[in-house]
Amino acid sequence: MVEFEQYVAKLEKCISKYIPPKDTWTPADEAVYKPRDFYRIPLKEAEEMQFKSIKYAFSHHYENNAFYHNFCKEHNMSPTDIKTLDDLEKIPLVPDKFFKDYPAGKDFATWVGNVYTGDLPKIVIKNRRPSYDDVINAFNKAGLAVTYSSGTGGRHTFIPRDQRTFYASEYAIAKSLISMIYPFWEHDSYGYELMPNPKKTNIYAGKVLEVYFDAIKDVSVAIDREVNTKLIQLTMGGGGIKGKIIRLFSKRASHKMIDDIIKWLEEREKAKDKITLVGAPFILLSVMNKLKKEGRSFDFGERGGVATGGGWKIQEHNRVPVADFRKQVKEVLGIPGKYCLDVYGMVEGNGWMVHCPEGHYLHIPYSYYKPMVLDEEFRQVDYGEWGRFAFLDAAAMSYPGFIVTGDQVRLLEHCPVCDRPGPVLEPEVKRVPGEEIRGCAEEMRSMLSSDLGK
Ligand SMILES: [Zn+2]
User: Fold this and answer.
1) How many whole angstroms from 414 Cα to the centroid of ligand 1?
2) Taking Cα atoms as reference points, which of 206, 255, 190, 191 lies closest to residue 448?
3) Which of 122, 206, 278, 319 meets the CB 3.0–4.6 Å disulfide criterion with 196?
4) How far is the CA of 179 from the centre of ligand 1 (A)?
């Protein structure tokens, strides 16, 4: 374990800007920044941190967020009702749909203010009728990190993070993945981000990967143009002729994107570099399809790693099961299954569930993030039963991170394959039947030409 300590210390040096000064740590920060490996904390210790951090976050939102305060009053709940670990389950949960139910124009800015916990920075909006992008950009210019994801219905899910919360999420995704893939990670390596450039988008799955540029020395980006809500709306079917022109452009651009990635793979193989590919699985699938068509393959072996996320949720019938995906990655890129991990996260949360290399079950950062599974009446079900995923997230300081999702999961008390403590989710997450399809990767796929990924 000494070697692991050095490994983590090296990582923390690279991503030190995401860690708040230790003398300012709250119980919530402690649960995020103190563990050396989120997935190997002895269960009792993790539960203690979980209790302290979530109780702290609950009190914080109860006291500093008028909308959540009233919501709790309606549910007859207050922080004094939280006395034991089991009491955490009584914390009132906000349905994820709430974050989609917002007005347009200047009222949107007010809505963001109502969701936000604490005092918002002063913002300047020049337009009389600002677009969503105008409002988000104004907030982000003032130091916030408002991000979004959306469904095919065109409604975005907007989440207002302050910088500290956003950093916590970025820190957590890097630390979660890199500790899970131990001892693979090295700063001296090359990466390809299969998402929009974090500097040119407010899509959560793109923006959160800013940390990738700190974790390794050289990162290329698949989608380097500005991606905003207007572009998404146009390419998701709206916008008439203008939308069609953008899609037409996207088709050419997407083919170039695939060719660029293949060129990069050729160069990295020639130089015997260590590589990682991180982002939307369908982009990598398009790359592999093209290589297969040309009868080509690479052999990166233990020098290659793949982390996918953002889901396959666009068309369940076209979905590639994660096990098949891994098989293709092995065949076409030569990267072993133990270094091909899927990540489950969402714009509403700051916890990252990551596949273990041994069994590809989704492990949970248990010290600050409590998973729950609910039935149709929103009652908790037992381990081993399918239901709706909900979570309590202590890392969310700028909005109440106590949320019911539309994702269908099964929680197991222990990983059936590896020896990490704490509960796990089944390797694949789907949507609850009848729930709108969504996910950041799906959004990307709609934006790029529709023949990609087939
Ligand atoms: Zn496992």
Assistant:
1) 8
2) 255
3) 206
4) 13
pLDDT above 70: percentage of residues in the chain: 89
Q: pLDDT of 254-303, one tens digit each?
A: 889 999 999 999 999 999 999 999 998 888 999 999 999 999 999 999 99
Rounded distance from Cα 362 to ligand 1 centre (Å): 7
Spacing, Cα 285 to ligand 1 middle (Å): 25
- The DSSP code sequence of 3-50 is HHHHHHHHHHHHTGGGSPPGGG--HHHHHHHS-S-GGGS-HHHHHHHH
Q: What value does the mean pLDDT take over residues 157-163?
A: 96
Phi-psi region of 103 (alpha: psi -120 to 50; beta: other; left: phi over 0): beta
CA dist 421 and 425 (Å) reads: 13
The Å distance, Cα 163 to ligand 1 centre, comes to 32
Q: How many Cα neighbours within 13 Å face the side chain of 331? A: 13
The model's confidence at residue 200, banded by pLDDT at 50, 70 and 90, is very high
SS3 label, residue 309: strand
CA of 364 to the centre of ligand 1 (A): 10
C-alpha span between 124 and 142 (Å, rounded): 9
Give the distance (Å) from ligand 1 centre to CA of residue 38: 13
Average pLDDT over residues 74-97: 96
Residue 440: φ, ψ to 5°? -70, -35
Kindly give the distance from the C-alpha atom of residue 283 to the centroid of ligand 1, in angstroms, as a whole number.
26
Task: Supply the DSSP symbol for 201.
Answer: B
Tokens 């740590």 -> residue: 25
For residue 194, how many C-alpha atoms fall within 13 Å in the half-sphere facing its CB?
Answer: 25
pLDDT of residue 315: 43
Least confident range of 82-86, 152-156, 381-385, 447-451: 447-451
Instruction: Residue 173: name the closest of 222, 208, 217, 216 by CA.
Output: 208
| Cα–Cα distance measured from residue 350 to residue 365, given in angstroms and rounded to the nearest whole number | 10
pTM here is 0.94
Q: How far is the CA of 361 from the centre of ligand 1 (A)?
A: 5
Cα(219) to ligand 1 centroid in Å equals 29
Provide the pLDDT for residue 253.
81
Residue with tokens 């990267």: 335
**368 alpha carbon to ligand 1 midpoint, in Å?**
19
